Amino acid sequence: MRAFSRGFQDDLTDLMRWRRDVRRFRSDPVDEALLAEALGAFSLAPSVGLSEPWRLVRVDSAEKRALAVENFEAANAAALAGYSGGQAARYAGLKLSGMREAPVQLAVFSDEGTTKGAGLGRQTMPEMLRYSVVSALMLFWLAARARGLGVGWVSILEDARLTRDLEVPEDWALVAYLCVGLPEEDGEQPELERLGWEQRETTLDLLIR
Question: Which of left, alpha, beta for 39 (phi over 0: left; psi -120 to 50: alpha)?
Fold first, then answer.
């Protein structure tokens, strides 16, 4: 079994600590070689039955991006309507998308109809395909952060609408819409914690004995 030095372990902990859901991006373009390196994390990711169900769509056209922004704004307005009082005010003040600024935008899907892996490990839990995509996304997120790139996961979207707008196969399920670019800032505390939306639990608080 490969052993890693204490220094590496500490660096890995720092990388996980400094991973951020970035929503404020600089206008600088992303170096394509750097992006390719980070995307290489997908080829290292685990997947159920070695199915590798992730499908990445790069959203570059102004038309497709505008449709994605319209989708977000409609879903965000609906979400805001579900809050009231001070919480509604706090929600309205949050920046929940970098879709207008991020130079690179990726829609990541799970191919629910893939035959790769011959169904191993997902006969009783077909959702393992989507879990596999999430595992790959986290590796990409860390790889991007290690290279100075910021990643923002936009989840306030109507998934069926985005699938139609991007004209992808019907059996692809949206897992994430990612904004990628150079972050505008690099604060020590995640924004939602800093703004008091919620506080992080410790591992010991969550451990069930």
Answer: alpha
For the segment 21-37, the average pLDDT, to the nearest whole number, is 96
For residues 23 and 72, what is the distance between their CA atoms, to the nearest angstrom? 14
Question: Domain extents for the chain?
Answer: 37-184
Q: What's the confidence (pLDDT) of residue 188?
A: 77
Region 140-164: mean pLDDT is 97
The predicted model scores a pTM of 0.93
Least Cα distance to 114 among 127, 129, 128 occurs for 129
What tokens appear for 25 in the block?
Answer: 């991006």
Q: Burial of 52 by CB count in 10 Å (0-12 exposed, 13-18 middle, 19+ buried)?
A: buried
Residue 41: how many CB atoms within 10 A of its CB?
Answer: 18
Residue 205 region, left (φ>0) first, then alpha (ψ -120 to 50), else beta?
A: alpha
Tell me how far apart the alpha carbons of residues 143 and 141 are, in angstroms, rounded to a whole number: 5
Q: Pick one of 3.40.109.10, 3.40.50.300, 2.30.170.40, 3.20.20.70 as the CATH number of 37-184.
A: 3.40.109.10
pLDDT of residue 206: 67
Q: How far apart are CA 191 and CA 198, in angstroms?
A: 10
The answer to whether 89 and 147 have CB atoms below 8 angstroms apart is: no
Contacts (Cβ under 8 Å, ≥6 apart) of 122? 48, 49, 51, 128, 129
